From TrEMBL:
Name the UniProt record assigns to this protein: L-ectoine synthase
Protein role: Catalyzes the circularization of gamma-N-acetyl-alpha,gamma-diaminobutyric acid (ADABA) to ectoine (1,4,5,6-tetrahydro-2-methyl-4-pyrimidine carboxylic acid), which is an excellent osmoprotectant.
Native species: Mycolicibacterium aichiense
InterPro entries: Ectoine_synth (IPR010462), RmlC-like_jellyroll (IPR014710), RmlC_Cupin_sf (IPR011051)
Family membership: Belongs to the ectoine synthase family.
EC identifiers of the protein: 4.2.1.108
Family matches, as HAMAP family: Ectoine_synth
Gene Ontology annotations of biological process type: ectoine biosynthetic process
Length: 130
């Protein structure tokens, strides 16, 4: 059994931040459960570009508001508490945040926690779990 709090993750190597967002990586590949689980906060009045070519991501919005844009189709979706989106086709996408959002995210395959987005918003392929 694994029990963790975001308070104990804050300020550790599981607490990763960029200019527009912050990700607290609660469960990682090294935990050996087949997925990773993150609490992500996206700053108000920001725009973030993402493209998870090697991962599937499910996102549940719990606070705030914004817009999700699917670059593959041009479709836009409002993001508000209770909205879930699943990037099961590795879609290039943009999150435009109007009010600070807090989201719960699941990645498969799990991330290790050391990944950084490249210039296209992509994480590298998942590393084998040891």
């Amino acid at each position: 059994m694994i029990v963790r709090t975001t308070d104990e993750i804050t300020g550790t190597d599981r607490d990763v931040a960029a200019k527009e967002w912050r990700s607290k990586r609660i469960i990682l590949a090294g935990d050996g459960v087949g997925f990773s689980f993150h609490e992500t906060t996206i700053n108000s009045d920001s725009v973030s570009e993402f493209h998870y070519r090697h991962h599937v991501e499910a996102v549940w919005v719990v606070e705030g508001s914004g817009t999700l844009t699917n670059h593959e189709t041009g479709e836009e979706y409002p993001l508000t508490p209770g909205t879930m989106y699943l990037l099961n086709g590795h879609e290039r996408h943009r999150v435009t945040c109007t009010e600070q959002m807090r989201m719960m995210c699941v990645f498969n395959p799990p991330v290790t926690g050391t990944e950084v987005h490249d210039e296209t918003g992509t994480y590298p392929p998942a590393e084998p779990v040891r």
